[in-house]
């Protein structure tokens, strides 16, 4: 047995400094299968458990810098969950109150966790952005009624993408030592995709190809392919993913994206189970979507390429859905799980 490789930094000061610097994991079986190096950035290893810890820290620091948030203040956000969880942690670590508006379609695990982290959680009906009752508008309006409060506005606040320009992208570039050929990931706010793409394009002189990954129900795939703002498919099981518009985080770099891949839910759910069975990784559906997209990119580019993607969070946040027979059946997805992986459907 070879000696363990010790690769650790120094002591970090508190929760916020523990965000980032996550491992980049070679997905061994998928790499062998495709003839490419398929690499997953292990964002579930952030201290709040998801890629959104990075954006949460940046939007709070941005509000502090702009004088919008002073000691004892309140952070208000509209979020499908992970940004809220990141914010709830960052707020506890920095002494702020945290109020979260979220669509009532999200998993119980995320709502319970937010409440355990001390956030004031307000589930509201899931209506489109164009409806004034949308969770984002409710968050903005509530923040405006308070003193010393900020609506962090993750969708259009570009401090979100800045987190990935300054951290995620440079980390992936350093970890691949300049050998990266492509990057792909899906979008919620678009911060991760746009920020990481910008950093990787800049670092590589434009050489790294970037592919948008999009689930059913989102408009971005069609927008990239045809320029038309139209939905591809009805809706998706991938919580926190899919967009109906170009956010301010994504818009500046949408042209920078080389191409787009569409990932149906069947492919995402199969990948949830494959990653568990083959790699020992227990990940959520957006991570699986991203990895399925990386496999598509490998097929497009051909063997010998190095392709990175994001493993956004763990499956713990969705286990009552993703591992439940009744839930999978209700979505028509039970049959998308290959027979030899059905034994993992255990709830
Ligand atoms: N995966 C999960 C599980 C998420 O919650 C989110 C954010 N909603 C994303 C991916 C997308 O990240 P971004 O907002 O940076 O596009």
UniProtKB/TrEMBL annotation:
The keyword Transferase applies. Keywords: Transferase. InterPro entries: Cys_Synth/Cystath_Beta-Synth, P-phosphate_BS, TrpB-like_PALP, TrpB-like_PALP_sf. GO terms for molecular function: cysteine synthase activity. Its cofactor is pyridoxal 5'-phosphate. The keyword 4Fe-4S does not apply. It holds the Pfam family PALP. Residues 16-313 form the Tryptophan synthase beta chain-like PALP domain. Its EC number is 2.5.1.47. It comes from the Eukaryota. This is Cysteine synthase 1. The gene is CYS17.
